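## Example record

The block below lists the input lines for one assembly entry, exactly as stored, with component labels intact.
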Amino acid sequence: MTFFLQLVVTGLVVGAVYAMVALGFVLIYKSSDVINFAQGELLLVGAYTCWTLVAVYHVPFLLAMAVSICVSLFLGIAIERMVLRSFINEPVISVIMATLGLSSAMRGILQVIWSTDTKTFPEIFPSAPVIIGPIAVSRVYLYSLFISLAMLVIFSLFFKYSNMGIAMRATADDQQAALSMGISVKVIFAATWAIAAVVAGIGGILLGNINGVNPSLSHIGLTVLPVAILGGLDSIPGAILGGLFIGVLESLSGGYLDPLLGGGVKEVAPFVVLVLILMIRPYGLFGQEIIERV
Amino acid sequence: MRLRNPFVMESGVFTTNYRDDMAFHFPVLAKIRVAVILLLLFLLPFFASTYFVSIANLAGIAVIGALGLNILTGFTGQISIGQGAFLGVGAYTAGFITAKLGLPFWLALPAAGFVTALVGAVFGVPSLRLKGLYLAIATLAAQVIIEFVIVHWETVTNGVHGMFLPAPGIFGYALDSDVSYYYLVLTACIIMTVFCFNLFRSRVGRAFIAIRDRDLAAEVMGIDLFRYKIYAFALSSFYVGIAGALWGHYLRIISPEHFTIGVSIQYLAMVIIGGLGSVMGSIYGAVFITLLPIVLRELSGLLANYLPNIEAVILGLKEAVFGITIIVFLIYEPEGLAKIWQNIKDYFKLWPFSY
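Predicted structure tokens for the full assembly:
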């Protein structure tokens, strides 16, 4: 039982990080109907910038984090301006390929700058785990849990009440109508990418603190895709629940099935569940169903 | 009236009835051009180095795979990010038949095609309900799941250790050199290209295009969406399976890391850069993407004489250039190399009075 509980709790905290990264996918999809395959690389940018500041220039961690958030912010805007703006109203395949190309380009450039070996953060979060009853949880995971929950609340309120959030929802619904209501779609897109890049950057910094930073960190972008799809690409609560669900699923399948099947079940289990769920609910668990009319 | 002088270029459309319009319309010059290109391709090993022939082999295999992906993505409009894994299915099927069962290669090649077609059809089932992004993710799931199976089904695939394949032979001829393999690849390439050209003049091919343009409208016109989507997945996977079988037997050693998502992205890039929904485009794109890293490597070799450290940087930049090329093509010529070539031809068709 303790083993089971330990797995569930580990799954939940890992899932919280997934949820945060998935939030980036959902934000971009919600306002511009684009799924960003370069999300993993945005993660890397945040993590690398923060690492360089902390480990090479010995900047205090919080300041370094703030600076890397700014870097991510401007990178997000730059990407939107230089690449994605050309793809407004283009077919899905072009958009997918553009972000895939973007991810390849960014990975290449990052590799040139930071090479491929793993960079480890100096110890920032105390390494002693927190003991809750019979279960031990690493502190970094707990912080990520809190940060992602905080972000969930912030973004839900943002989309519900702030002018910008409402404008984003309007843009997602109908770009032309939004334009005629005086919303600048360009500004909205730039803001979305900026926010998504920042969310990814924070996720990258947290993950970098857990496992160190190397290019394989960007694979989490792919791991998190099922999360975003599972919850429905346009649903923020969906992303959070999907993240927690996939986290627990991974942890349980890793714990119970890996010894039977010889490892790697963790990575593939979310995708199997994803296909099954998509067969039943093609728009994810909480996604908005699109009704096509001829 | 068509001019019969072989040196006169085609300068417009002169058909006056539907029969002529539907017919394969080859001006004399085009016939000569095709004949010359084929002749050059068949004679290539006599004047090119072995290195060049090996590149041509890789390009030829890529052409078959790209044709397959273009049938699915370019002509039927179903996005697939699982191409790399399907290549793997083809390669491992062929490998299992020749290496483990000891059956001849000429049997393994079509078998690989059919098994991959079957697997492709199974993973095509979600396409009935999923569209666009969600379908792309479902095919990504196919990629991950098949990769997992390849790694873990060790009795068949040898898992991460990889599988050694025997040199293929057909009717007693051993195809163990680059040159002999070149003729196999070239023949397969020509057959599959011609089939592809004809496919889109047939009922099935037209149905694919109708589904791409508007699936609901196609259904209203009496096209059984589910059946034709499955056809598209199966046919596309057949091509990819053949490409995989050829690739595997060319490399002679296959392991899971040959069939990752990176390969899938490369094939998508071929189709995009070549031209979605264009048979010739698949060929241009496949050759382009095959040559890109090779040219970059040569360039970095040249520059290395002057700048000692640049090679490492350029190897890192290879990926960047790959990505940037895709983006540039998508922004400036979304219809790809095929369209660029068409524009050049159109320019000269009416030159110097292009109005």
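The longest strand of chain B covers residues 163-164. Chain B touches chain A through 48 residues (CB under 8 Å).
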